[in-house]
Amino acid sequence: MSDLAADAGLRAFNHVFDEAIALQAAPGQPGVYKGTPSQAYWNMVGPFGGTTAATALQAVLRHPDLLGEPLSLTVNYAAALEAGDYEVTARPVRTNRSTQHWTVMLTQADAEGQPAVVMTATLVTAARRATWSQNDRPLPAVPGPQEAERTPLYKGVEWINRYEMRPVHGHMPAVMDDSGDHSLTQLWLRDSPPRPLDFPALAAMADAFYPRVWLRRARRVPAGTVSFTVYFHAGSAELAECGDGYLLGQAEAQAFRNGFFDQSALLWSEAGVLMASTHQIVYYKE
Q1: What is the pTM of this model?
Q2: Which of 32, 51, 162, 202 has its CA at 20 to 30 Å from residue 59's CA atom?
Q3: Cα 64 to chain center, whole Å?
Q4: Taking a C-beta distance cutoff of 8 angstroms, is the pair 125, 63 a contact?
């Protein structure tokens, strides 16, 4: 068993986030796991997509054949995950000398009791080695986390309360009146209560930004992520250096057109290390 797989097992149920992504191995079926969505991370319809992405990653991290550490993760949300048991299957489809390629599928019983695909994902893990390295996107010059006011607890969507968010730019519009003129948000965030950063938590935080169309339009329209990709620039050493500190997240959109828009995001540690970058395509409705 890899060190990451062993660590994933040891960390289970230490935190509400660990409970949300907890998986039980199916006896005699390597790479097959059972899970249940957590009400603690519930969104308006189904669980927070970040925890679904983290669950896909967790299935790979628990696999006994895991090589290396996460490099990239792409999650496609085929349907809303409902309150009920689900099954996750993670399979390595090719292993090279330094990279390993995975497919992940999450299914849940439909109205007739038949397994229906809810999420598909691909993941690449890699054996990292020390080489020349450089941050070409430095940490923006913004006030520190203790200088930014924490957003209050939110009664309508539970998952938001699982994060300590401290916006410094691009707050949610107080008045939805179609007066928006930009889509850029910068905020400090970490798990609430604080939790040492690991790969599943980093994947979930990459999806912790509200839809950019709400800010750009100053209009809260129906919206939902269709496909979500995370690139992990940090390895285990950089994650350990973060501890349970804050990450600075920066998100913005590039284009809104014909019912879909993309939004990209960057996540830095307090020390200025770029931990992850992410891109997603999002559906929106008038």
Answers
A1: 0.93
A2: 162
A3: 23
A4: no
